[in-house]
Amino acid sequence: MSQRIAIIDLGSNTTRLVVYEYEPGRRFHLVEEVREVVRLREGMGNGMALRAAAIERAQQAMRMFASFCRSQGIDDVIMTATSAVRDARNGDSFLARVRAETGWEPRLLSGEDEGYYGALGALNGVGLREGFVIDLGGGSAQIVEVRGGLPGRTVSLPLGALRLSDLFLGYDRAKLAAVDSLSAFLAEQLAPLEWFRARPGDSLVALGGTVRNLARIDQAANNFPLDMVNGYELVAASIVDMAGRYWRMSQKERLRIAGLDVDRADIIQSGALAYAALLEHSGFERITISQQGLREGVFYQRFLAGQPQPVFDDLRQFSVLNLARNFDCDGVHSRHVTTLSLQLFDQLQPAHGLGASYRQLLWAAGMLHDIGIRVDFYYHHHHSAYIIQNSGLPGYSPRELAMIALLAQYHRKGNPKAGGLGTLFSDEDQRALPILAGMLRLSEFLERGRSQVVRAVRCHLDLANGWLQIETLEAGDARIELWDASRNLDVLQRALDLQVELVSGVWLGEQESLTQ
Amino acid sequence: MSQRIAIIDLGSNTTRLVVYEYEPGRRFHLVEEVREVVRLREGMGNGMALRAAAIERAQQAMRMFASFCRSQGIDDVIMTATSAVRDARNGDSFLARVRAETGWEPRLLSGEDEGYYGALGALNGVGLREGFVIDLGGGSAQIVEVRGGLPGRTVSLPLGALRLSDLFLGYDRAKLAAVDSLSAFLAEQLAPLEWFRARPGDSLVALGGTVRNLARIDQAANNFPLDMVNGYELVAASIVDMAGRYWRMSQKERLRIAGLDVDRADIIQSGALAYAALLEHSGFERITISQQGLREGVFYQRFLAGQPQPVFDDLRQFSVLNLARNFDCDGVHSRHVTTLSLQLFDQLQPAHGLGASYRQLLWAAGMLHDIGIRVDFYYHHHHSAYIIQNSGLPGYSPRELAMIALLAQYHRKGNPKAGGLGTLFSDEDQRALPILAGMLRLSEFLERGRSQVVRAVRCHLDLANGWLQIETLEAGDARIELWDASRNLDVLQRALDLQVELVSGVWLGEQESLTQ
Question: Which residue, of A300, A454, B289, B331, has the fewest CB within 10 Å?
């Protein structure tokens, strides 16, 4: 049964309401977002009280959100407040008023809580196992250590980009002395964090508007071919370069930076310097961006309430199944095409030599290859690719997403080529594309009648003589499958540089071994 | 309840199987197509018998199709055969064998039947009321008169493109004498058709691979920005130009024509000359292309069986509702946004002066504006536009489809602009885009809480002073709607060059008159 939940996140600068529609643990999608700038911290100074005008703006927004939830019939509402309310002496009385007006039970998050939920969002957004998550906002920055895929030790530091511009650099061109003061402050804040150091195998994930915008700028400078930041990797050299240049520029000059969010022209220089210091201290050489954060983390705690931990065991698998389910496209046919594709992949291992990560991408493409069919049948392979590319698929990098989309695009016709997405690909990826597409294509046509009549394939490979026989193990009349599959061998044949022939075999039941 | 039907069309050159999933009269979509080239007419000559090899190929394909239907559990199968079987002396015995092997009851279509079903496909594809439909295939061409939106008088002539190449021009560069003979033959065939003449208000619609390909070539030469031919208008001058040039070219030269389907390099010259003669005889100045034909016509007869005639009363309305239903997006919210948009359109008529055809496009955009939401929420306006553009929407021209897509694209943010689609637009269209987008945007935000709390709007217009007040008639707490709508007035304000203000009013029930 589908449920709906609203999550409200009242930050120092912005408040957002999001609504998810979901079946617990099974599928979800975001159906609504309302964002309002309330500048709750405005005029508050250091550790002082929320001001009357700011309170009024925030109350007003909360009343709107309450009205919105009522009118949509959503009674499951989680409201969280973070550093502005936490730091204010009158935060309690502000929340009491919100409670009285709306009937919600507002959650005032500690710095630890904030770090925890942000990390949950990031872990379920990019799939980190070992390393750290940084959530750098306007006021504070949280650093969370992640071990075994779960969030652990957390610290909250006063390193928000807005606050650093406020206290050190100002909003326009900065003086060198100011940059020196900021650098000293950053070093002093980070010095105690002996545990925040890269170990072998660790990764660093970051979230929040500042790092997303640094990534967008980096993408614009590199003609990045996709419109997504989740999973994007920003290298240290690029951040150090931005950190070294932006403080010297006036706001007007910064506004000309391609990819810059105009609302951040006054704080991006501080954010870049903060990230440069974080990288220098921790010794990481790159940052992976997470699009998801606090609100998503709060949602996952609910969505995954049935599990020991609110973190996906297998994020990539869940993302694919979630998208398929949202398009009513997780049926028997997709699963069987996937099964056949993976049988080919495994049995042809000696011929292609591709690693397990490619197998996983082939799995994803198999599950999603028909997802575009309701847009229009004739070009549904293109529509599947469009939907995959634009859906984001948490857990996959842009490069991987591009590969999955291309495999779906070429699952029924055309000569597989990376086109504009090729800039994301290694030589190995370029080689893998037609091989994987050839396997998916053949499997699609072996499942032409959508009846699973070809239960399995058995490959007889003779590499020395450049020859491959594929035996189709049939549990019935597979005429149409053999007919169509036999005219769709060319992609695989060319990609593997093998002579391929299909031979009709008989399915003898589940005891049949598929390994030779 | 969803049903499935398979339709098989055995032509002179190709046979196709299509499968539709549908709820009678309510919604359908194509879920499968299998195409095979069987060259059934090969070696048959004039009025002779189907040859053994051709029969074997066709039988083989029919066995495949039968196996396909069985394995998918489809027992509702309609098989039709056209001119090759009709003209053959042994057609009956061929069909008897198909019947025995498959259990189907094959329908041998007469020239009239063939014209009728092709016309049904075309009428339900582009929405013709008065005029003619031409279906020019490989062997024959059908001309059907359409009056009051229904197919009437029909003739079938031996003017198929393949046959004309065969009998007159050959497949490569032609001689002038051959063209003269062909022209004389065309004139002789058309001369008796006194009734096939353009009357005022008549349109000419054409279908089949030849005219679709002429359209694709015309689009390529004009940098047409969409990938669709349905509803495309091909002007006589362009056809005359192609007819005058292609027969002088070798096949190799023709293969360099941008947009040419390589399978047609040997017959396109004959098709172009046939169309030029058809236009000259009938006096039409343009042809509207229908993507749909015979198979679709057969399907519509089943789909619309509950109606007096198997033609949509309102094709454009049906197309929009069908797409919305296929994406589970025909809910109360979309309908209410549409209602509010149309109230604005009607009441602001003195301010914008746009005609009823724009009102219809606004209706369509209102119904479809959220259709992309399952791809991804944040850019769902873009995804809606993508789906609309690629779904085709029978009954709308490419220009209209572009307008609907753009309105959906700008329904929540951005400054409406036609971009690459602008080449399809008139000056009036360019003016209409931001006006309509402004109305849709305002309506979307007046329905922000998706609760229909703003039941209606009442416009108080003071053109002399450049001033407009919009009263929102509310049946409850419409705080969030007014809040969000008031910050989304800018597009409408700029487009109409009016000072716009929103005022909160009260809904007094259905007796409330919405006209001032």
Answer: B331
